[in-house]
Amino acid sequence: MHPHAAVRIRALLGGAVTAVLIAGGVLVAGNAARAAAAELPTVVINEVESDAAEKDWVELKNVGTDPVDVGGWILKDDDDSRTKAIPAGTTIAPGGYLTVTVDENPNKFGLGAADSARLFLPDGATLVDSTSWGPSHATHTWGRCADGTGAFVQTTASTKNAANACPDAADTLKINEAVSDGGSPDDWIEFVNTGDVPVDAGGLVVRDEDQKNPYTIPAGTWVAAGGYLVLDKGTHFAFGLGKGDSVRLFAADGTTLLDSTTWPAGTHANPSWGRCPDASGTFAMTTAATKGAANSCTPVTPTDPEPEPADANVVINEVESNGGTPGDWVELKNLDTVNAADLSGWRILDGDASHTAVPFPAGTTIESGGYLIVEESQLGFGLGGADSVTLYRGTVDPANVKDTTSWTAHASATWARCPDGTGTFRDSGASTKGLANDCSDPSGPGTDPEPGVEVWPGGTTMTAVPTDIPFSGDLSGLDYEAPALGDPTLWAVTNGTGTLSKLAPGAGGAWNGAAGWGAGKQLAYPDGSIAPDAEGVTVADGGSAGGVYVATERSSAAKSVSRPSILRFDVSGASSTLTATNEWNLGADLTATVGTIGANSGLEGITWVPDAVLTARGFLDEATGQRYDPALYPNHGTGVFFVGLEQTGDVYAYVLDLTGSTFTRIATIDTPGAMEVDYEPETQLLWAVCDEVCDGRTATLQIGSSGRYEVTHRYARPAASANYANEGFALAPQAACVAGAKPVYYADDANTPDTAGGPGVSLRVGSVRCTVPGGGNPGTGPGEGGGGGTDPAPGAEPDPSALTTETKDTVTGPSSARAGSTITVTIGASHAGEQVDGYVFSTPTALGTRTVNAAGTIRLTIPVSLAPGDHRVAVYDASGALIGWFALAVTPAALASSGADADGGLPLAAALLAAGAVLVGVRIASRRRSSADRVPTTGWIDTKPVPGARKGRFSL
After folding, report:
1. What are the tens digits of pLDDT across the range 922-956?
2. Is the CB of residue 480 less than 8 Å from the CB of residue 731?
């Protein structure tokens, strides 16, 4: 038996979801021989009978357009000593067949269970075609599918001198079993091949009761005769199976229904919903899930019902649905001030019916008057911007509801009862996890007017964008791509399903699904698993032709595990699923400096900035402590990626090795509230955008004299717009300006209706004024035309004598750091929201003003010029009072590598930059490589410092 045939047989008998070679080695060898001998006639072996009741035979077919005289041609099996000559004068017409019975005289021979059939010219040495099979006879015959041209497979019937009977999964593949609750590792669907030959299920489409998120079975997914095919949620399909749900199997056209089943309303398929008897009977609840095996249809022995949980006076008290640590959470309170509450067997469920409420373990109690925090990892799901939480005493049943609450958008802090434990729900003043609720007026960023926050520089409204894509929530990142030729594209990612949509402009301001894209394409990790929780999207140099980059938080198959990654996708193909070509997982790098990242607090936004802009403006590379030198980073292309992290609200700059999965972080930009980032080539500004948590504020940043990005403006949301959960933001290019304004697009993650009871809206458009870069009058107002200002001291210069042993280590930080690096300083959660000032001694050197985040930390950058040696870092409050200090040993800043040290990277980077310069000149209207990417020589605008604001820090 040929070794490739053995590979095929093993794959068929295994019944696994895998693509296999189908007699490929033999077939390829025969085709190669034919190609090398172009004069060979167009005759092929088409079908073989090796186990006939009468005589074995080999069928030939003329696949050409002219008759072929095969007289004298020779047939052999796998033994060269056994030959069978075709009688002289035998001709096969175009498209015709000839069957040669090899098991009869003269020179007869039989065909074995593991054997070959070979066709030679009359010289007995020139091979025309061949095929091999084994280790057993075909059930019917061994033939080409499609007839005459395809690869060899087991046919479904013997068709001597006629077109082959090819197996069709649409005829024999049936739904056999499904699990919607308690599956391993999650929901799954099982199919069975009821035929007597293997079939390729590739191309068939699987859905639940919803039309969204269809799963197309990959080509080459062979199912053995009588074998099973199992598809798992997350690894294969993206949808979840709920109560009273369905499984449907469609033909490759996606519309012809082949098989379906639905389990009872209000009931999960648990242990499983399967055919009884296996593979042939009607569907019923089985007695046990039998993944990949015959169904268990033994009669059920009644068991004692689950004991009724104890009653208790417990309420939902506070909810964190966005930005919690380590993720979302629900706080319960025991209102009984005398007795503890036993919550064994109680359950919590959100507003998504496809989710499963996990019972609280036995022994779960709340002390009298106490609180219980149920973390996202315990819930098994996250909470949305428009969602609900219901507490059940026992099973999920309306009769068991103990408490419930719902909200229409994420709270600015948390959603809580006021007064604590007894009042109605409203936005709290601050998060008080495990403590009495803060019922002061909400004081989150953007709630109260702040000095330096300006009116939005554009229209006062956001309006719904007409689209034929039925976005229903979770729309997150946006990116506007304007190619040099042709129409622009609006790229959009949906985080819940991990979908990338390509929108094209339509009539009346509409943005509809682009041709061939429908409502979007499923995204998958490089290993083929789905679906990444896609939050941000961008293109780089060369536009989407060079790939689309997506920022992600986690995998939908492991929602409780953080996976903050950048994924690259080739979007040039026609497949409905896009598999990432690269993954850069930033998790280990980020957690080393920011600590544990919540599974739902990963990467939120992504954008790309050209090297030419960064180097011209003197961008500081914090990895080296020197000005950014692209030549130090071979294979990174011509720019740097900037990502926003929800956990901290900061932006991080990464240089990616585009040939693999490695990267280098070169900057940390202290900009809380960056739920989206966007680069504007015309102004060379970096936009940091926050959602409803920050009252919809945005900020612009520019590279200052220090080489770091500094805030230039802070803007309120458009005055007449509601506080939407805008997680996507995309500026149109200068070419889209009309009457001094250009569009800016917003993605509302919560799909908020514009009117009460109206349809949800995910995509909106506003406007921002068009700013012509260069040559303009910098203005006469305060700070116009300036370079961003400097960090002021917090009053009088601090006195080093206050740094005593009594005040030492009341704030903490690392024991050593390199000059030019950024460090994290822990002050304490009690100072959260306060503005503080950092200094380094011996000679007092201001490190800038920072706002303490919710975790009680700030980040300070050690000056590159600071002399190596022992120093002290001190933190002062807004009044100038010392909070505390710690000792810090400063080591020299790293030196930039020379060209000789960069493994040839300098010439490569120079070539890439030169190519980039050419692109800038050619693609005048390009979103990512426009003429505005070049640094103007005069009159650059939007670099003034915010009046009264300290450079390098803003509170959205």
Report:
1. 222 333 333 333 333 222 223 222 222 322 222 33
2. yes
Q: What are the backbone angles phi and psi of residue 182, rounded to the nearest 5°? A: 85, 15
Separation CA 38–CA 91 (nearest Å): 20
d(CA 761, CA 714): 26
pLDDT digits (tens, 9 = 90+) for 354-379: 888 878 999 999 988 889 999 988 88
Q: Say which amino acid occupies 73.
A: W
Q: What is the 3-state secondary structure (H, E, C) of 236-249?
A: CECCCCCCCCEEEE
* Alpha carbons within 13 A on the beta-carbon side of 504: 9
Determine whether domain 3-154 maps to CATH 2.60.120.20. Answer: no
Cβ atoms of 924 and 934 within 8 Å: the answer is: no
3-state SS, residue 915: helix
Q: Token pair of 556, please?
A: 């939908």
**Token duo for residue 46:** 């088409």
CATH number corresponding to 169-285: 2.60.40
Reading the block at residue 811, the tokens are: 């704030």
Contact 189, 175 (CB under 8 A): yes
Q: How far is CA 116 from CA 26, 82, 883, in A?
A: 10, 12, 86
Its pTM stands at 0.44
Q: How far apart are CA 1 and CA 24, in angstroms?
A: 13
- Residue closest to 505 by CA, chosen among 481, 526, 531: 481
Terminal C-alpha separation, the chain = 71
108 token code pair: 């007869």
Q: Verify cis geometry, omega within 30 degrees of 0, for the bond prior to 185.
A: yes
* C-beta atoms surrounding 874 within 10 Å: 24
What are the tens digits of pLDDT across the range 690-734?
988 888 999 999 999 999 999 889 899 998 889 899 999 999 998
Q: Are 172 and 199 in contact (CB under 8 A)?
A: yes
- What letter represents residue 343's amino acid? L
Q: Retrieve residue 110's tokens.
A: 């039989």
Cβ proximity of 810 and 884 under 8 Å? yes
Contact criterion met (CB below 8 Å) for 857 and 883: no
Structure tokens at 376: 């996202």
Distance between CA atoms of residues 955 and 858, nearest Å? 13
Answer yes or no: are the C-beta atoms of 139 and 161 closer than 8 Å.
Answer: no
As assigned by CATH, the class of the 800-891 domain is mainly beta
The CATH number of domain 453-769 is 1.10.10: no
Answer for the pair 782, 774: CB distance below 8 angstroms, yes or no: no
Instruction: Give Cα 344 distance to the centre of its chain.
Output: 36
Q: What are the residues whose beta carbons fall under 8 Å from the beta carbon of 391, sequence distance 6 or more?
A: 314, 315, 316, 332, 346, 347, 348, 401, 402, 403, 404
